[in-house]
Amino acid sequence: MEESKKRTNPLVFLREVRAEARKVTWATRNETVVAGIMVLIMVVAASIFFLIVDWVIRIGLGLILGLAN
Predict the structure, then answer these.
(1) What integer pLDDT is reported at residue 50 of this predicted model?
(2) What tens digit of pLDDT does each residue of 12-69 get?
(3) What gap in Å lies between CA 39 and CA 21, rounded to an integer?
(4) Residues 27/35, Cβ–Cβ less than 8 Å
(5) Pairwise CA distance, residues 2 & 7, whole Å
(6) Which of 19, 27, 41, 42 is placed for a possible disulfide with 31 were both Cys, Cβ 3.0 to 4.6 Å?
(7) How many angstroms separate the CA atoms of 59 and 53, rounded?
């Protein structure tokens, strides 16, 4: 059974949204910069990892297909 939802006045809704937004703890500039640098490092590390995995698979398949000839 669906629970009935109470309709709210748009002004009341906006006041509630504003009150909830005040409760948000925003990241500092330094935290944002550090997180951004960490993301870049992880992207580079993942790219290198997949480059190596791709290279190993390519060589392995080349050896397997070379043996078939």
Answers:
(1) 98
(2) 999 999 999 999 998 999 999 999 999 999 999 999 999 999 999 999 999 988 887 6
(3) 26
(4) yes
(5) 15
(6) 27
(7) 10
